[in-house]
Amino acid sequence: MTTTGTSVPTGGTNPPLVLDVREEVWPYRSAFTISRGTRTESRVVVARLSLDLGNGRTVSGRGECMPYPRYGESVEGVIATIESLRPALAAGLDRAGLQEALPPGAARNALDCAFWDLEAKRSGRRVWQLAGLPAPEPVTTAYTLSLDAAEAMGRAAAAEADRPVLKLKLSGPHDLARVEAVRANAPGARLIVDANEGWSVEDYVALAPRLAALGVALIEQPLPAADDAALAVLDRPVPVCADESCHDTASLAHLAGRYDAINIKLDKTGGLSEALRLRRTAQERGFAIMVGCMLGTSLAMAPAVLVAQGARVVDLDGPLLLARDRDHGLRYEGSLLHPPAAALWG
Fold this sequence. Notes:
Layout: E1 2-9, E2 17-34, E3 37-54, E4 57-65, H1 75-83, H2 86-90, H3 95-101, H4 106-123, H5 127-130, E5 139-140, E6 143-145, H6 150-159, E7 165-169, H7 175-185, E8 190-194, H8 201-213, E9 216-220, E10 240-242, E11 261-264, H9 266-269, H10 272-284, E12 288-291, H11 298-307, E13 313-314, E14 332-333, E15 336-337
Parallel strand pairs: 6-7, 7-8, 8-9, 9-10, 10-11, 11-12, 12-13
Antiparallel strand pairs: 1-2, 2-3, 3-4, 5-15, 14-15
Helix pairs in contact: 1-4, 6-7
């Protein structure tokens, strides 16, 4: 892991608030491929907010985000956005004000989660207590298989056949063979598939009933977000989940009749605050909940564990795909993910 960044006091608050924002690079255990391309590392942004409480006591809160080019984000742009809030932080910007100061996205996520962590560290309480939530329990996460040829995905599935949930990255051509290979090599696993907007309507119509017959439990974002209106008039033999089509609570108005579930990711919602609101509103409107992630460290997953409580599908396996995780990382027992320790976050 490599880091770059600077720390500058924001000034103006009592006690003084210090913002530190930096890039970190975390290599993967092996190359990871989806329909949009292949990566070998994650470039993440970490924001830290610190308070000097006097008497030699300083408390800090951290948040991690992964800028995503699909949404017009870059590491440099996200860092610049966070830096631009120094005057507002100096003037007393808090977590509530942050929701209006920035739109949903990676930059707001890093700061929102840093605010939550700071509040927890300062108060001596856990974030779920501050949010009025029950204490979180362990959750079972899916384990993701990178997009590859059918035979290679079958071998990968065989190596992970004991995991209860496998998520397959798909792309369109040869996807049926990929799923068949995985099912043959992991007959007991619950399967979910993610096309990352890589299918056409014709692909969906041809594949959906065949995937139902193979026992696939969920299809994630089969069509491009701009073309997903077609789902309202198509049969859905397997429940369909919105990912790229769902960012925050405002997105829900366009999803009714097209999707059965939504995938909540903190980098899309702009942090834990909006993610909790989105979960509550989506459940009220009848959507099933999936909680997902970008390929980040345990610091990025930790707030999402709170959102994942009671979710139908949990996909928080990012740290399992890294060459190494950060200190005090989340504890995984196979696919069982335990809530974060206070030393990590919250």
